[in-house]
Amino acid sequence: MALLNILKEGDETLRKKSRPVEKLSPRLIQLLDDMQETLKESGGVGLAAPQVGILRRVVLVDNGEEVLELINPEIIETRGEQTDYEGCLSCPGKWGITKRPAYVKVRAMNRKGKYYEADGTGLTARCFCHELDHLDGTLFIDKVERMLTEEEIENL
Ligand code: ZN
């Protein structure tokens, strides 16, 4: 396993659309392993492949119980609305208020090639939306209602 470099806002790769994974390969498994290690080290709750320079539709989401590996994920259901703050490993030091669905259900493939569904509320729901946005070149700063001030960040 290896720690991967996380691209920062301003890097053009973060603005590109990622392509679906067509078949499982040892390289993909390696990517998942490396992303797992990188996410753990970063202390974040989610990581998308484009953030480590790989334009493939692969994300990790830590739902508090396990780190879900989502290959070719799609949001299949949302309910309600929540407004809260979020940040991004690619935008260090920045936090902003965004509106996201209160409940999100996704469908994705796991590393064995099986499709499964996962859902969540609160931070997990936000994280599904945030990470899937990365696959289309969207960052949370594009969607913020407002950025938090330094003072607010200190009090998080
Ligand atoms: Zn992010």
Secondary structure topology:
Blueprint: H1 26-42, E1 46-48, E2 58-62, E3 67-79, E4 82-86, E5 96-100, E6 103-109, E7 115-121, H2 122-134, E8 146-147, H3 150-154
Zinc ion (ZN) binds at residues 88-90, 130, 134.
Description:
The chain has a single domain (12-154), classed as Peptide deformylase (Peptide Deformylase, Alpha-Beta Complex). The strands form two sheets. A five-stranded antiparallel β-sheet has the order 1-2-3-6-7. It has 156 residues and is of the alpha+beta class. It has helices at 26-42, 122-134, 150-154, and strands spanning 46-48, 58-62, 67-79, 82-86, 96-100, 103-109, 115-121, 146-147. The protein is built from three helices and eight strands. Residues 88-90, 130, 134 line the site of zinc ion. Zinc ion binds at residues 88-90, 130, 134.
Mean pLDDT comes to 97
What's the end-to-end separation, in Å?
33 Å
- Assigned CATH class: Alpha Beta
Bound molecules: zinc ion
Give the beta-strand count.
8
CATH architecture: Alpha-Beta Complex
The low-confidence parts are none
Strand content: 25-35%
Largest sheet: 5 strands, antiparallel
By CATH, the superfamily comes out as Peptide deformylase
Q: Specify the overall morphology.
A: globular
CATH topology: Peptide Deformylase
Task: Quickly describe the structure.
The protein is an alpha+beta fold. It is built from 3 helices and 8 strands, in the order H-E-E-E-E-E-E-E-H-E-H. The protein has a single domain, classed as Alpha-Beta Complex (Peptide Deformylase).
